[in-house]
Amino acid sequence: MSDPLLGLTMLMLIVVVIMMGFPTAFTLMGLGMLFGFYAFYNPAEHWIDNRVFDLMVQRTYGAMTNDVLISIPLFVLMGYVMERGALVDKMFYSIQLAFKWVPASLAVATLIVCTFWGIASGLVGAVVVLMGVIAFNPMLRAGYDVKLASGVITAGGTLGILIPPSVMIIVYAAVAGQSVVKLYAAAMFPGFFLSLLYLAYILGWAVISPKIAPALPEEQTKVPVSAWMRALQASYSSRNMLAGLSRALVSPARALALDTEEGPLTYWAIVKNFGAALVPLALTASSMALVWWYVVIHPQASAEAEAPEGLEQLGMPAADAGPATINGPTTSFYASFWLIAAIAAVVLVRYYRNMDAERLQVVKLLVSSVMPLGILTIVVLGVILFGITTATESAAVGAAGAFLLAFQARTLNWQRTKEAVFLTAKTTAMVCWLFVGSALFSAVFAILGGQALIEQWVLSLDLTSVQFMFLSQAIIFLLGWPLEWTEIIIIFVPIFLPLLKHFDIDPVVWGVLVFVNLQAAFLSPPVAMSAFYLKGVSPPHVTINQIFAGMMPYMLIVVLCMVIMYIWPGITLWLPNYLYGG
User: Fold this and answer.
1) Lesser CB count within 10 Å: N end or C end of the chain?
2) Is the pLDDT of residue 449 over 50?
3) 456 CB burial (10 A radius; 0-12, 13-18, 19+)
4) Helices (H), 40-84
5) Which of 478, 539, 542, 390 is nearest to 67 (CA)?
6) Is the pLDDT of residue 198 over 90?
């Protein structure tokens, strides 16, 4: 057998052995050592002098000194601390109340929490199990279709591996030699767009067939309003809580005479509730101000700082260049900005005009459950995308913030901390050994000529860029049925990477398509890990086939998302090009 055919034999064996249940990392190392020993075998040398052992040491050292991988344990620790800190229960309850008027409100709340929690933790298994415990039984008790309930949890739970900060993106960046920051920016919009497609499917199905998601009884959607809020409305003759709290701040005598569950109402409690009522206004105003600063003010300040007056290039005659021109935003930006500002103002006016005690209570629940985690997530992503810190430094900030949130919620004890650290060490060790095994396997595969044989075969097909893109993504889609994302990224993606330059395909665009494609790896039988995670916490009468049936439509949505991304590449490239140029 020729050496290239031995390389292809390696590739086939790795798939067969992994499907038999052997650990991926040690299978990669074992096959790499076995075939590498043959590739380097020299009868004139002692077997202990075989160069495969030197290759093993070199590849291990190379994987361990890869700076990109340092952020993995920190992001994983951030996810496990928040998962062990049990911070999601209150979030699901508050979002469910906020969206109680929407069809299939429990499913919608589940998808939103899955998306939000997936961003914060980046852990697929933890999100699916948590939402299976918290949301699956309530949906079944409410009469929801089993396929709808299982599908939204399994599909929504996988979004954490796509939307930054994601361990999968870090692994791809290390394999492909790409910037983690640029990949994070490129994957941001596609991740949220896929979540939006999931949401549209759920709402459309619920509207067309209301029986799959019956309306919840009133006792499950009733907002728990404190008695003192009703009394404050009566004292100040105002159904609008914002107006009542404003009057109470100016004239607090009647409000301070009221009693709450903790005792007499204090002036500080009035201030806190008034502040909570203003949170929607503050978030909208701060978001618009941040956009205005970054797009309009920041470029002008940067341009002035980069071109100080009175300096000229060495060896060039002095010349009056005239006033420096600064390319500001286009007219379309100003038109869009003020249109969005006007719409936001109308929505806020309508919102505050109808702010009763129930609406204020929902805002308070959202502020206490969602806002701290939201601020942490925005900080972690913002400092990466705007170039303030590296991905590793941002991961450290995220891990520290996760500990602070858990301690503030008083849900993280010593036992849970030990569990989070142990699981982080376990996951990190798995990823590192995967990199070692993959580096050895790919090196031996290339030495045997397997990589060159595949490249020659692909080039002999005389494919266009579109055809190669379709072929590569179709192969990865099919590999997602028997394999997990780790095996695909570590073993098979490096085979395609050298061919991207020949077909003039941006590795960032191709990589983000792979990220979306690999969502199907968690949703495709027989190795659909999301289904098995959910089955482990589901009632006995829910079968694995019902869960599989619930996941199938979401696989088609993944394919639709990829088609839209290819037709409109701006979904992927606009943010990284805007932030970093290109």
Assistant:
1) N
2) yes
3) exposed
4) 51-64, 71-84
5) 390
6) yes
Which tokens hold the place of 329? 């935003």
pLDDT tens, 369-390? 888 888 888 888 888 887 777 8
- Tell whether the torsion through CA atoms of 461, 465, 467 and 473 is positive or negative: positive
The enclosing H or E element of 170 equals helix 167-176
What mean pLDDT comes out for the span 25-40?
84
Mean pLDDT of 395-415: 81
Region of residue 287 (phi > 0: left; psi between -120 and 50: alpha; otherwise: beta): alpha
Among residues 564, 526, 519, the alpha carbon closest in space to that of 128 is found at: 519
Closest CA to 578 of 166, 185, 180: 185
Q: Is 386 helix (H, G, I), strand (E, B) or coil?
A: coil
Backbone angles phi, psi at 314, to 5 degrees: -60, 130
Q: How far apart are CA 194 and CA 58, in angstroms?
A: 40
**What is the per-residue pLDDT across 410-425, written as a single tens digit (0 to 9) for each?**
777 788 888 888 888 8
Helices (H), 388-506: 391-409, 414-447, 450-460, 465-479, 485-487, 493-500
Q: Does residue 225 carry a pLDDT above 80?
A: yes
| Amino acid, single-letter form, for residue 197 | L
Cα separation values, 266 from 177, 255, 262, Å: 58, 8, 10
Q: What's the pLDDT tens digit per position in 54-63?
A: 888 887 887 7
In tens, the pLDDT along 288-337 reads 998 888 888 877 766 666 555 554 544 444 444 444 455 667 788 889 99
**pLDDT exceeds 90 at position 194:** yes
Q: Three-class SS of residue 259?
A: strand
Beta carbons within 8 Å of 510's beta carbon, 6+ residues apart: 469, 472, 496, 500
Pick from 291, 201, 193, 202: nearest CA to 568? 193
User: How many C-beta atoms lie closer than 10 Å to residue 467's C-beta?
Assistant: 12
Q: What phi and psi values does residue 312 have, to the nearest 5 degrees?
A: -140, 155
Phi, psi of 14 (to 5 degrees): -65, -40
Give the global pTM.
0.84
Q: How far apart are CA 46 and CA 49, in angstroms?
A: 5
Encoded amino acid at 463, one letter: L
For helices 507-517 and 493-500, the axis angle rounded to 10 degrees is: 150
> What is the distance, to the nearest Å, from the Cα of residue 326 to the centroid of all Cα atoms in its chain?
36
Give the model confidence (pLDDT) of 463-492 as tens digits.
888 899 999 999 888 888 777 788 888 888
Pair type for strands 263-264 and 259-260: antiparallel
| Residue 492 in tokens | 């098979």
For 25, phi and psi rounded to 5 degrees? -60, -45
Per-residue pLDDT, 2: 53
